[in-house]
């Protein structure tokens, strides 16, 4: 694979022959090696910029690849595996772990995925398009501004996940899944309805000078006031329990 990259100026999609050879070699290697070694291959392709679409270079076609029992924490160079902007289309994922990974703007197109672990993942603006997700865990993840377009969501755990301004076009999601999320403010359901976050203050709206001792329904977190335009009635109340802030 290294020789192909050197031969074609660092791109496996520079011409049709190279693209076909690289795809066949990669898929055959996935079938022959174990999950741990397959992670290293994916990491190599990612670091070589072969799994991201850029104006100069298209991503390598991994469609039909079966990536089972893979733990992307094994590919981490630093504390968290950074896999931002990957293009994963038509692949099958099973028992795959992206826990604590950075998946900003990742695209999962026509992916079939089951028993996935996305816990504590930072996946802002991730896109699931025409995908099928079953029995998977997004708890404590930050997926604000994500898009789940025409995607099956069966037995998905969004507990304490940040769903701020997430879009669900043509995607059914159960109320109980939304109720467990950290934030659903601005999320758009399949029928076009915009969701608003619950009111965290009892007995009316407090102004910015309130001591924040009484009246809050949210517990076990720190609450601070952010003043806006120096007005006592124009401010934001910020919760600080997690690193996955809602906005």
From TrEMBL:
Highest taxon in the source lineage: Eukaryota
Pfam families on file: Pentapeptide_4
Protein name: Pentapeptide repeat-containing protein
Annotated organism of origin: Rotaria magnacalcarata
Organismal lineage: Eukaryota, Metazoa, Spiralia, Gnathifera, Rotifera
């Amino acid at each position: 694979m290294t020789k192909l990259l050197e031969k074609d100026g660092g791109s496996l999609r520079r011409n049709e022959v190279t693209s076909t050879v690289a795809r066949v070699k990669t898929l055959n290697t996935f079938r022959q090696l174990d999950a741990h070694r397959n992670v290293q291959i994916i990491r190599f392709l990612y670091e070589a910029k072969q799994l991201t679409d850029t104006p100069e270079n298209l991503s390598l076609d991994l469609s039909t690849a079966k990536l089972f029992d893979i733990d992307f924490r094994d590919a981490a160079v630093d504390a968290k595996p950074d896999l931002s902007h990957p293009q994963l289309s038509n692949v099958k994922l099973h028992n795959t772990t992206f826990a604590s990974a950075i998946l900003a703007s990742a695209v999962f197109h026509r992916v079939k995925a089951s028993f996935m672990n996305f816990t504590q993942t930072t996946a802002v603006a991730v896109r699931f398009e025409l995908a099928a997700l079953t029995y998977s865990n997004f708890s404590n993840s930050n997926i604000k501004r994500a898009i789940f377009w025409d995607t099956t969501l069966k037995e998905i755990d969004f507990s304490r996940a940040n769903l701020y301004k997430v879009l669900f076009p043509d995607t059914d999601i159960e109320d109980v899944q939304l109720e467990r999320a950290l934030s659903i403010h601005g999320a758009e359901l399949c029928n076009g309805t915009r969701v608003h976050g619950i009111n965290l203050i009892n007995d009316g709206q407090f102004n910015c000078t309130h001591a924040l001792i009484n009246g809050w329904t949210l517990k076990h977190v720190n609450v601070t006031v952010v003043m806006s335009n120096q007005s006592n009635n124009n401010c934001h109340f910020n919760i600080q329990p997690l690193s996955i802030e809602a906005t």
